[in-house]
Amino acid sequence: MGKIITMGEIMLRLSTPGQSRFVQTDTFDINYGGGEANVAVSCAHYGHEAYFVSKLPKHEIGQAAVNALRRYGVHTDFIARGGQRVGIYYLETGASMRPSKVIYDRAGSSIAEACPDDFDFDAIMEGADWFHWSGITPAISDASAECLRQACIAAKKHGVTVSCDLNFRKKLWTSEKAQSIMKPLMQYVDVCIGNEEDSELCLGFKPDADVEGGSTEAEGYKGIFKGMMDTFGFKYVISTLRESISATHNGWKAMIYDGKEFYVSKRYDIDPIIDRVGGGDSFSGGIIHGLLTMKTQGEALEFAVAASALKHTIPGDFNMVSAEEVAALAGGSANGRVQR
Question: DSSP assignment, residue 99?
Fold first, then answer.
């Protein structure tokens, strides 16, 4: 097991009950979550020493977010305290042909206003095995992007493996702004994770594949995987492949390239989806665990895809599964029979 650091924003999630719409509900369900926080929870569930780095207010809502992480074994020693607010996002869960919707209310959150002096990145990275971040973190604000850059510098100084989930969010920035920030940060990244849209909008690499039409064969990705590796020096390039049949029915698989071999995972038919928010983060947590503990990239990828498939069945941002449960699904136990 390893010492894993993740850095980003944890938010208060307010979701409509069931599949009700924003305009018809008079109550919200409360959860906490956010890209890198979700990854930290997954890694803690797998037995790793997981730390989440962020900044949160000192008031009770900030403390509630900290407590949500502690509840699942995530270390919060490196969360700076200060600022005025916790970011919020509202979630309306879709069904059938009606898509889910997210509304952000996160401007001026504590992490958006953080500065590098809020963190001792040398102490944070000391003895760490892995540092994970996503494209959401530098998109929050220029200040947050600078904090992340300093964290990456410290990670490389301490010999830490760095992974990035590209995670483009059009409600946070444009493709032009994303590329101006993300491309320079790629010099620090060893493991690049994304999907076909993320790769194009964040790095300018577009695969020859029609994912919307169900064309997700490996051949369409080989060229851009090689190009990304040649351009940025990644050790692994990984892409998730989602077929959106409806809001509650998706096909799900992934592929990985290590500079020598391509490996494509088995495909999962996920129907019905209970909650797809955090699905990509659960994949990242799974691939980190797999690459740290398993012998081959194929084994690591199968674990990550199975972990993410399970997350789609669980309400909330966090993936509440053990490594044993993921391994059972990856090994073919997918009938959902009661375990007695």
Answer: P
